[in-house]
C-alpha cells in the first residue's frame, strides 16, 4: 500500500512539473510546434535513464521511494500520450512533414537522452 501512495504523491508532483514546464516553454518559444512536449519527453527520458541506473547501481534508496520517483514522478512528468495525439493532430491538420519531424525527433532524442543518463550514471 505504501508503494501505491508513493506513486500517487510523486505522480501528482510529476504532473505539476509537466504543467509548469509546458507553460514556461510555450511562453518562451510559442505554440506553433509542440516544443514543450518534445523537451519534456527528452528530459524525462534522460532522467529515467539516469535515475534508473543511479538508484540501481550507485545510490541506496528504498524500493518504495525508487518506484515513486521512476513510476510516479516520471510517469506523471512525461507525456507520451500527448505526444501521440499531437503527432496525429499535426498530420490531420495537413502538416505531415511537421508530424514526421516531431515523431523522429522525439524518438531519436529520447533514446539519446536515456543513453546519456545511463552513461553519466555509470561513469560519475
How is this structure best described in words?
30% of the residues are buried. Helix content is 86%, strand content 0%. The protein has one domain. The chain contains five helices and no strands. Helix 1 (2-29) runs antiparallel to helix 2 (35-58), helix 1 runs parallel beside helix 3 and helix 2 packs parallel to helix 5. It is globular. It is mostly helical.
In short:
This protein is mainly α and 124 residues long. It has helices spanning 2-29, 35-58, 63-77, 80-92, 96-122.
Helix proportion range:
over 70%
Summed over residues and divided by their number, the pLDDT gives a mean of 96
The residue ranges in which pLDDT falls below 50 over 5 or more consecutive positions are: none
Query: How many separate domains?
Result: 1
What structural class do the secondary elements suggest? mainly alpha
Beta-strand residue percentage? under 5%
Given the C-alpha coordinates, what overall shape results? globular
* Element pattern in H and E: HHHHH
Largest sheet, in brief, is:
none
Q: Cα distance, first to last residue?
A: 34 Å
Topology (SSEs and partners):
Layout lengths: L1 H28 L5 H24 L4 H15 L2 H13 L3 H27 L2
Helix pairs in contact: 1-2, 1-3, 2-3, 2-5, 4-5
Keywords:
single chain; about 120 residues; mainly alpha; 5 helices; globular
Amino acid at each position: 500500500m505504501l508503494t501505491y501512495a508513493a506513486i500517487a504523491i510523486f505522480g501528482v508532483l510529476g504532473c505539476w512539473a509537466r504543467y509548469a514546464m509546458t507553460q514556461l516553454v510555450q511562453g518562451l518559444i510559442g505554440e506553433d510546434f509542440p516544443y514543450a512536449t518534445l523537451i519534456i519527453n527528452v528530459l524525462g527520458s534522460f532522467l529515467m535513464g539516469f535515475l534508473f541506473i543511479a538508484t540501481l547501481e550507485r545510490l541506496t534508496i528504498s524500493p518504495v521511494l525508487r518506484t515513486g520517483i521512476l513510476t510516479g514522478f516520471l510517469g506523471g512528468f512525461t507525456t507520451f500520450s500527448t505526444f501521440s495525439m499531437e503527432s496525429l493532430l499535426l498530420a490531420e491538420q495537413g502538416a505531415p512533414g511537421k508530424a514526421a519531424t516531431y515523431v523522429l525527433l522525439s524518438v531519436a532524442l529520447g533514446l539519446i537522452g536515456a543513453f546519456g543518463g545511463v552513461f553519466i550514471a555509470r561513469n560519475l
